[in-house]
């Protein structure tokens, strides 16, 4: 237990000592929220029509907040861990750790603990800035926060195992960023983070619906947006149960992929 706790502390310190990781994962959602909020400050609000025909509107900061919360989870888990572990494998760090008494489980606890802590801090900052600086009204109902907690915990777990699994893709550590970041970036654009999901072509919606970010984003929209905005989702509903099933499937599949692909060093090294 002490070893695992020490690894979490070590991983957190290492994370915040890497400027590129801090900027492209920790600060990225906050910067994007500020950019969208300032750029569209004078634009007409985004409207949706409820089932009773009554229109509801929100400003751009409120509209983009849910997708950026989901993006932060994916960046902190999948992108950060994928690049970090691939780099450690390439520079020999994993091989050296494999020659020490450090259990593999403690190594993973350290990585996942780091993601959990940094994601919680990042999300708290994002919500605080959205509320205090840009005037976003945060939910008050306990049920909304229950959904938020469920999507966040399941999203973090799924993103972590996918990050560990995807770290096996880059052949060299220096190619990790070029291999993993474009995948994560494309997912952001097709999953309803920056563009209204139903404005995408049907075939692209179907592709995005296979991946977890689309469901993390819609789950967060169900928390932060008025119910009328469910009409802008496929089928006119949030589909939280289906989203949960997709995330659980990726969590299970990602865990299996981790067990199959993770090695202290590459087989071909």
Automatic annotation (TrEMBL):
The keyword Nucleus does not apply. The chain crosses the membrane at residues 21-41, 61-83, 104-133, 145-169, 176-197, 237-262. Pfam families: ABC2_membrane. Its main location: membrane. Keywords: Antibiotic resistance, Cell membrane, Membrane, Transmembrane, Transmembrane helix, Transport. It is a multi-pass membrane protein. Residues 20-265 form the ABC transmembrane type-2 domain. It comes from the Bacteria. It is found in: Cell membrane; Membrane. PANTHER family: DOXORUBICIN RESISTANCE ABC TRANSPORTER PERMEASE PROTEIN DRRC-RELATED. Belongs to the ABC-2 integral membrane protein family. This is Transport permease protein. It comes from Curtobacterium citreum.
């Amino acid at each position: 237990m002490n070893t695992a706790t020490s690894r979490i502390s070590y991983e957190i310190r290492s994370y915040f000592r890497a400027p590129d990781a801090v900027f492209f994962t920790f600060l990225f959602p906050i910067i994007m929220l500020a950019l969208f909020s300032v750029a569209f400050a004078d634009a007409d609000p985004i409207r949706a029509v409820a089932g009773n025909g009554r229109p509801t509107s929100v400003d751009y900061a409120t509209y983009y907040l849910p997708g950026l919360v989901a993006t932060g989870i994916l960046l902190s888990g999948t992108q950060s861990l994928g690049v970090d572990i691939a780099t450690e494998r390439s520079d020999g760090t994993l091989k050296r750790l494999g020659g020490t008494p450090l259990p593999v489980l403690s190594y993973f606890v350290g990585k996942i603990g780091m993601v959990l802590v940094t994601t919680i801090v990042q999300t708290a900052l994002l919500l605080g800035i959205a509320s205090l600086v840009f005037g976003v009204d945060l939910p008050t109902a306990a049920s909304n926060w229950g959904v938020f907690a469920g999507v966040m915990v399941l999203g973090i777990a799924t993103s972590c195992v996918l990050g560990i699994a995807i770290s096996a893709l880059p052949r060299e550590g220096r190619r990790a960023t070029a291999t993993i970041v474009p995948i994560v970036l494309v997912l952001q654009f097709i999953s309803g983070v920056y563009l209204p999901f139903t404005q995408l072509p049907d075939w692209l919606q179907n592709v995005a619906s296979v991946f977890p970010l689309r469901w993390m984003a819609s789950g967060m929209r169900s928390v932060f947006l008025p119910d009328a905005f469910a009409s802008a989702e496929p089928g006119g509903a949030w589909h939280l149960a289906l989203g949960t099933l997709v995330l659980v499937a990726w969590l299970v599949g990602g865990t299996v992929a981790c067990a199959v692909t993770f090695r202290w060093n590459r087989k071909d090294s």
